[in-house]
Amino acid sequence: MLRTVFVWTVGGFWTLLMSIGAITGSFLPGGDRNAWWIMQRWAQFLVRIAGVRPEVSGAANVVDGPQIFVANHQGNCDIVLLSGYMPRQFQWIAKQELFRVPVFGRAMLRAGHVPINRGSRDDAYSSLDAAAQAIRAGRSVMIFPEGTRSRSGEMGQFKRGTSYLALKSGAPIVPVFIEGSRGRMLPGTYSVHPGPARMTIWPARPTADLSQEEILTLLCAIRDEMQQAMDQSDLIE
Predict the structure, then answer these.
(1) pLDDT at residue 220 in the model
(2) Distance of CA 170 to the CA centre of its chain
(3) Other beta carbons within 10 Å of 155
(4) Tens digit of pLDDT for each residue in 24-55?
(5) What's the rounded Cα separation, in Å, for the pair 235 and 166?
(6) Residue 107 CA: distances (Å) to CA of 101, 112, 150
(7) Alpha carbon 160 to chain centroid distance?
(8) Which among 14, 35, 40, 217 is least surrounded, fewest beta carbons within 10 Å?
(9) What is the DSSP-derived secondary structure letter of residue 205?
(10) Distance between CA atoms of residues 68 and 204, nearest Å
(11) DSSP string across 44-86
(12) In the chain, what are the domain boundaries?
């Protein structure tokens, strides 16, 4: 309980401070790199005070050029784990509600992250078009293809938006498998639990010249591989 109170109190102040820094840094030369550096410091500090022990492998699988990182979503810890320890700069494609948080949401916009309105199909695809344009311009993005974190621990179905993004951008898909994070903060609770969380970057899957249906088949295969890896994980919650 004391750790949870400490993490939420100190973490809240740290988030406000880093958000102001990200907004300020975005106006300086190298704005997106400044915001990325600040996001990493923000996330790594939160991981440390929460007592999470990150394990990262597969950095050699990050390819040259822009790419679409797709990660399974087991809990809130996933966001700080990915933000703090991915070896490549990326922009989040995240639910619109996060961008409405005072100061923090403004910092996300200034850093180039892309809001998506999950309640409107037209708005969602318009956001994905903007993200695809950014990818073609050389940026990489991170997305949770399940759309939201799992409540049961089972993998959710992947949404079609990820295949649309790959189709429009032609960028390779790089799966990122996360395990152990669900137990660090169980869904529906605010309690923080120290322990390990593992992030493994899998080899890139090319999508250039594939149809949307072929990309959907590829994503279904990735989901099945992640579910199988989850079933075999030694970090069972």
Answers:
(1) 95
(2) 20
(3) 20
(4) 988 888 888 899 999 999 999 999 999 999 99
(5) 31
(6) 10, 9, 26
(7) 17
(8) 217
(9) B
(10) 9
(11) HHHHHHTTEEEEEE-GGGPPSS--EEEE---STHHHHHHHHH-
(12) 2-231
Centre a 10 Å sphere on the Cβ of residue 15 and count the other Cβ atoms it contains: 17
**H helices present in the chain, as ranges:** 2-26, 31-49, 77-85, 104-110, 121-136, 161-169, 212-231
Cα–Cα distance list, 20 to 10, 94, 114, 119 (Å): 16, 20, 19, 29
Lowest mean pLDDT among 67-81, 82-96, 142-156, 168-182: 142-156
Assigned fold of 2-231: Glycerol-3-phosphate (1)-acyltransferase (3.40.1130)
Closest CA to 5 of 207, 233, 192, 157: 192
Which range is least confidently modeled, 60-69, 118-127, 167-176?
A: 118-127
For residue 2, pLDDT beyond 80: yes
